Amino acid sequence: MGADAMFWNPANVARAQNGVDILASHMTYIADINVIYAAVAVKAGSFGSIGVSVKSLDVGKILKTTVQNPDGTGQTYEPQHIVLGANWSKEITDQISVGFNINYVSETLDLVSASGFAFDFGVTYADLGGIEGLDMAVALKNFGADMKFDGSGLWLQATNTDQRRGEQFYKVDAASFALPTSFDIALGYEVKFGDANVIQLSGVYTNNNFYPEQYKFGLEYGFDDFLFARVGYNHTEEYESSDVLFKYALGVGIKYNVGVDLRFDYTYLPAEYMRDTHFITLGIGI
To answer: What CA–CA distance (Å, rounded) separates 185 from 97?
Structure first.
């Protein structure tokens, strides 16, 4: 837990082991898309913990096409999707932590763009029911007002046949669209064997407004707080198994202390019809 919790559950940022936690990650997604994420979290005494994050989606350059030039005009444009986030979290008691993110979302497609604010809320309860190692978490993510595209790219030249005027400029009124909001309920259980072996089991139920319900399961084995091996499985309601983009995830991690905690994590997500996804994360805890 640390700066990475800003993405998964903002309440867990307060449960970081280090006073300062920094991470950067890169994911090679489908269709030559790259996702870059970076975050910094700092403990601020009795105020709690604060953090900032940035996520960028890089889809590369896209060739412009028109009705007259369906194979391209020779010009290109480069879509941009950026999310800037600020986090606050706090351990209310030894067992309960709360947190929220304020995210500024910006999307640009050539000459049109849309922007708005989204919010994440999270609560974590450790040692649920007095059972050591059993944690429960709830998170509402990406909740906010509808967004709408605007810009000079919505102006078109056309002729209104109902009026005695020549060609005029008309502006298209783009429809607003809702953010992809999700609600997560998770349970996790940690079991220790001796001084060096730790097994963590986790399960997450996710409800999305644009996607069927999901049930995610994960297993992590840790040796001597140094080497970690992970496996995950995703079951999506109403979808055939072959229709789910990512069903399984495999990962390894290394944590090494050299005065500061250095972390390296690698995740492999095989895809049946698209190219496989690779996720690399580097972290520093001070």
So the answer is: 15
